[in-house]
Amino acid sequence: MYNIIYLDDEKEKLVQAIIQKLELSGILKIERFRPIPFETEIQHLQEDLGKYDALFLDLKLDGEQEDGKKVFYQAPPLAQMIRTLATESKIPNLPIFLCSTEDRINQTYTKDFTSHDLFDWTFIKDEIDNNTVEKIASIINGYKTIQNTPKDFDTLLKRNYQDIDQRILSRFINEENPPIHEIARYIFKGIVKPGGIMINERTLASRLGIDVDASSDWQRLLDEFFYKSKYTGVFSENWNRWWNDLALDVFEELTQENLPSLPADERVNLLKQFTGLANLHAAEPLKFFSSSYFWNICEITEKPVDPFEAYKIDNKHEPLPWQDYKYVSLFGMLEYPEIASKRGIKIYPDQLEQFKSQSRKIG
To answer: Which of 98, 164, 207, 277 could serve as 119's disulfide partner, Cβ 3.0–4.6 Å?
Structure first.
């Protein structure tokens, strides 16, 4: 069981409902506090944070509380001070989670890019389920693992660090006693979460040309053949990822063919031939598309796309050299505009006119 300190200015009844959902699985034990004046809050955290495994912060801590009291700060400046004190070794390095309503996240947090690196993960109060709790536990466990071997990247990644792009973690090689939260952030947000050097299950299926939903042998293919490319390092318990280069190596070892040069049906036919798994089916291009040289997924439909036919998503900042762009299909944008709106998906500026032109032709 992990002990959590939770700051929230909401009414007791609302907060207890959230705590009840978080504690339901027996993995987390939550202790709730109401925000107090900033300097007093920092002193409190310096004294007591060592008793806990993580910190939960409501985004807006400055609402009027039930007793009429009010503070004049929100979660980001508090998190910034906590990170600074942790870097100075005045308080423990713990994961910080941001929790709020979807409206507040979209209206405030998503627009404030300067604060995104302060929080390890964000979850929505109304969407808490067992998966939420398991992801929280995975991040806490990852911190503990990093704390034990902070610069042993072979152990942390469960792979020879020399075999991957060493720019990713190069800043920590010569740095003496780098902050644990910085190492955790670089691994989690720089490698594990984004696509690129690692890929998620749907992207792996896209690159193999497989329609996951129509292929009953998909899990067997993963378990019996692509297990060698599965990521097993920190944060892997609840973020299923595969090393992209190793997955391509597995395909080539099986088939003696270069995967990117083949359309989906040929990729799948080769896999069926050399694995003996008959219930694998090739994915078909989405509506308005024709190419089956799949490599990415549409972030709305989660279906395979050829990036040369899809549109890059504007994430407001360029991906790092080892990270991929995210893509969306014309079909996804036109068929599910409410999903695009909810997730804040927008077309990359230099492709916006092309998108509008194609949309007009279809409409």
So the answer is: 98
- pLDDT in the model for residue 112: 66
Hey, what are 305's tokens? 């796309």
For residue 154, the enclosing domain spans: 150-192
Structure tokens at 265: 């049906």
Distance CA(116)–CA(105), nearest Å, equals 11
How far are the Cα atoms of 236, 297, 332, 333, 363 from residue 337, in angstroms, in the given order? 32, 17, 8, 5, 14
Q: What total of structural domains would you count in the chain? A: 3
312-341 average pLDDT score? 94
pLDDT at position 101 over 80: yes
Question: Is 6 within a domain?
Answer: yes
Say yes or no to pLDDT of 44 above 70: yes
Share of the chain above pLDDT 70, in %: 97
What is the distance between the alpha carbons of residues 30 and 233, in angstroms, rounded to a whole number? 27
Interatomic CA distance for residues 128 and 275, integer angstroms: 39
Residue 50, classified by CB atoms within 10 Å of its CB into exposed (0-12), middle (13-18) or buried (19+), is exposed
Per-residue burial over 225-264, b if 16 or more Cβ lie within 10 Å, else e, is: bbeebbbebbbbebbebbbbebbbebbeeebeeebeebeb
Helix 264-275 vs helix 201-208: crossing angle, to nearest 10: 90
Report in angstroms the alpha-carbon separations of 82 from 28, 42, 92, 93, 140. Answer: 22, 8, 9, 9, 16
Please tell me whether residues 40 and 132 are part of one structural domain.
Answer: yes
pTM, two decimal places: 0.93
Residues 18 and 40 placed together within one structural domain of the fold: yes
Reduced to 3 states (helix: H, G, I; strand: E, B; else coil), residue 16 is: helix
The residue out of 144, 178, 205 marking a domain boundary is: 144
pLDDT band at 103, cuts 50/70/90? confident
Q: Are residues 68 and 160 in the same domain?
A: no
